Amino acid sequence: MFSSKALFRMALLMAVLYSCGTSQPARRNVLSPGAPGSVDNRSGKHPSQTVFTKPNQITKRQQEEERKKINTTVERREEPAAGSGDTALANASYKSPSYYKYITDSIQRTSAKASYYRSTESLFKQMAVVPNPQNPAVNAQWYTTVNFDARKPNFVILHHTAQTSAEQTLFTFSITRTGVSAHFVVGRDGLTYQMLNEYMRAWHAGKSRWGAITDMNSCSIGIEIDNNGEEPFSEPQVESLLKLLGYLKNKFGIPQANFIGHADIAPGRKDDPSKYFPWKRLADAGFGYWYDSTNLQQPPADFNALLALRVIGYDVSNPATAIKSFKLHFVQTDTTPVLSDYDKKILYNVYLNYM
Ligand SMILES: [Zn+2]
Questions:
Q1: Which residues surround ligand 1, an ion (CB under 5 A)?
Q2: CA distances (Å), origin 181, targets 22, 219, 247, 278
Q3: What are the Polar residues biased-composition ranges (predicted)?
Q4: Is the pLDDT of residue 8 over 50?
Q5: Would you say residue 199 has pLDDT above 90?
């Protein structure tokens, strides 16, 4: 027998699931500037962002209402449903992997997958429109080319999740209010999840810079590795990651130099992946560079360390944070913002790979 309280909770859960499954499509202008993650997933617009117009434009208010509806649904579900008769959720401790798995599976089933297909369909429609009626620079007859394909990612950006389980990260990327995502999530157990097609733009890099590129989301694949930032990465996880990197490198012809970390492209703002990340092992397998410890030479007298960092790709507008990011990646045992003679030898050795 269910108590009246339990029956009420069941009714509430059913109402929530029903309203979610039958809600109107959330139409968002996914190619518009200012869409979450358009350049910086938290900092809004980028002036150089191309302006596209979606055929059935909806108002900002409608978008906001849709967003609130989904987020409210999620918040309501964050109450453990003990006594609801749903044993899977009742047996899961609050915020345990099984708790997140249950909630995320429910969101995926009822709203996330539908939202994904709506967004991709909207993107395809917008990309197929040429010339764009909003483009005032086009003032001649329309001729189409017949020779093209999709743009491809040319970088892989590696992250640690700083969360407690892969399930928590899958949840984080399944709801709109977080405004973050990645193409892949690699669990500690070696399970690799794909959340987004590689040709789509995930929101993982945020405000970042590498060389002259200031929109890393547009040219990269984002991989989130389940790790809290204060622990070594597990062997099954590293093996799965290497397999994934090999697949991406072959499929898109990504250069060895272009496998880098979030901290590399966002000095002073990000510190992932942590000092425990096995960059040398990746470099030995052809993903990113490492220095040759058996052949560390003294740099020339006129060696300019900041210029070398800049050549590699670091944003050196703040030299101290650039040095810290470099050391997090290549020195790992010490991340003070100062280059020792030994650090300079490492830097010179790495720099030669980029010449
Ligand atoms: Zn990151």
A1: 159, 262, 272
A2: 25, 15, 20, 23
A3: 46-60
A4: no
A5: yes
